[in-house]
């Protein structure tokens, strides 16, 4: 009796792309996780208000989402390595300018909002996860996506600790220069990102001679795709609200300043376990039901964070619980896109879904600062986040996860 054993890695290119992809997202997402820790320096040295800082993060989110779509189209056509190199160079220039060119006023919005946003558009999960996922068949694709996302979490765990430690020895501008060097190393390595040769013979993706524009129209005309976008909007709102405003929120509730950094680091640490778990489960069970449960649990976690007495113990518990749910949305969300539409235009279609996520990110970043500056409290932003959790819980239930009919008779590679 012959038993077929499915290999996890189909080629050496899959191994190289996975390793480099993991490093790139750990750098891009790790550095992004630290901006809230630098707010005190932005406020004191650059005269940046809560609202202005929130606006910059919001602009960054929108620009990130737009360029994730643009870079996704380019990556599907020309290769991810080319767009990722360009994106990382722009990212590094934005960080350098922020720390060295007296980024007050509009320059702050240009550097942190636009340039960093463009860099993230081509060097973060929406480009790197589909690039890696193309190397894996459907029965391993969510696991591979989970691995890449987990390394984004490694960066999110390490960089807040790294930054907090460096504050004891360096000026904040010097820390940004260190970030620039790391980003340039990532840019050099990204040249080696590979496109899978197997896609040239992939029956699913090439069975229909589909153009990029047709793939776009097909997706946005499909109700389940729109439901997925609506759910991912909520994801963006919640994680950006937390990453941008929690460091100050915990201080407002009377906790020590280190608590904010601890929450962000714990989110990064436990997101590793969350994304790996979701990647494993999403290859076995219904992705839409897993996503629905995840958003429901996010709502419960936020409620407990608000109603329980403020303490370091509660803050740490929030970091652990919310971290487990943080980027665990990515393997299942992008997995549904690949499962329904195939992988030929996966980077573009994932980028469009991510653009919705970034409109949510803009809302979370900006409204958090707006509510605080105008009402003296972040509570309204938290209440909205809770309502959105239960909205996303319901939005995922009617999603149809089945491949489109044009793919049903094709054999998955």
Structural description of this entry:
The structure is a single chain. The protein has 18 helices and no strands. With 413 residues, it is mainly alpha-helical. The chain is globular. Helix 6 runs antiparallel to helix 16 (346-375). Helices cover 77% and strands 0% of the residues. The chain has a single domain (17-405), classed as MFS general substrate transporter like domains (Growth Hormone, Chain: A, Up-down Bundle), CATH 1.20.1250.20.
Task: Summarize this structure briefly.
This protein is mainly α. 77% of the residues lie in helices and 0% in strands. Helix 4 (80-100) packs antiparallel against helix 8.
Keywords:
Growth Hormone, Chain: A; mainly alpha; 18 helices; 413 residues; disordered N terminus; 77% helix
Please specify the SSE layout and strand pairing.
Layout: H1 12-32, H2 39-46, H3 50-78, H4 80-100, H5 106-123, H6 125-133, H7 138-166, H8 172-189, H9 203-206, H10 212-220, H11 223-252, H12 258-282, H13 287-307, H14 312-325, H15 329-341, H16 346-375, H17 379-395, H18 405-408
Total domains, how many? 1
Q: Ends: how far apart?
A: 23 Å
CATH class: Mainly Alpha
- The Rg value, from CA coordinates, equals 20 Å
Average pLDDT figure:
85
Morphology call: globular
- What is the multimeric organization of the chains shown? single chain
Strand content: under 5%
For the report, how would you describe the main beta sheet? none
CATH superfamily: MFS general substrate transporter like domains
Helix content: over 70%
Flag low-confidence runs.
Answer: 1-5, 198-207, 407-413
Number of strands: 0
Order of helices and strands: HHHHHHHHHHHHHHHHHH
> Please, how many helices?
18
- Name the structural class: mainly alpha
**CATH third-tier fold name:** Growth Hormone, Chain: A
Level-2 CATH architecture: Up-down Bundle
